[in-house]
Write a structure and sequence with these properties.
This protein is an alpha/beta fold. It has 9 helices and 6 strands, in the order H-H-H-H-E-H-H-E-H-E-H-E-E-E-H. The protein has a 4-stranded parallel beta sheet, with helices on both faces. A two-stranded antiparallel sheet has the order 5-6. Helix 8 links the parallel strand 3 and strand 4. The longest helix is centred in the N-terminal third of the chain and has 58 residues. 33% of the residues are buried.
Amino acid sequence: MRCVACEKDTKPAGKGRPASKCGHCGHLFALNPKVDGIADMVVKKLIDGVTAKGEHRYLQAQLEHELEGRLTKRSKGFFIFLLVAVAVAAGAAFFLLHAVVGLLVGAAGYFAASRWHRKPRAQSTAKRDEAVRLLQRYDQLNPPNQRVDTAAAVPALGPDDVVHDRVLVCQRPDHAAFYRENGFALTAACHVACPADPAASREALVAAVRTRTAPGVFLVHDLTPAGLAFAEALTADPEWFADHPGARRVDLGLTTAHGEALSDLARPLASDEGTGAIAGLPEGTGLRLTLFRPKVLLELTRKAMEDEAAFVLPSKRDGAGAALAMTGDAE
């Protein structure tokens, strides 16, 4: 096993059993590949991919989504191995003709099973729960230093601090923390806000921006019943410039227009995400902004604000199969 602290290899403890700690620096291993199916170094490489090798900070849900994709990919790989093994055994027992027939039948069965697998079912929830459990154990021994602190205090704003005439309004506080900690206000020349921000800070920002002739108000949210309700409510809310004659209001996403294109990444709705069907998605499922890697989400948002239009999704999927890639970042 390879240590994430010193990046040196340690031989198994004996009889193929993984070592419990690094033989070079003594750093403890959090995961047992014999039991968990993955090693510590796999998680470290996933973090490197999610952060673009330390360039960006990430939400825990983004890493969970990435690991969930890896675990799902691992399950499919085992299914393929099992299919081939059965076909080979059939060939040994029933000669070549039967093996060919077995392979064809098995391939057809795998194709049908893989189409079923892409649909959000209970298995998706199981993989997500497994990803959460594995990352909790990893974090105990390897405290994250690139993760967004969602509990950080919202910066207090005075009149002189409001310098932009554009505001990115986030549905969730963790979304707002993500944009703030990645310096989005500076790179995109906008302020980041959330209805859940402390009243003093929120009201100071809104009051200052309201004095601008043509303020830009851009919404980002999940494609969930709660996310769609958020967008509808803010569109009609005077506090967020609904009564401002010059305000430019743009719903960036995720919107129902993205549902069909991303339907294979939909996941069952959590209890706080509302209930109901969403156009383009299977019943009882939704899409979260955290399905995108940080670099992808930041670039999608910046470009959409520049064009004053909803997210334009990239067409290429990343190597982990868990998010859409625009950058080709290695895992």
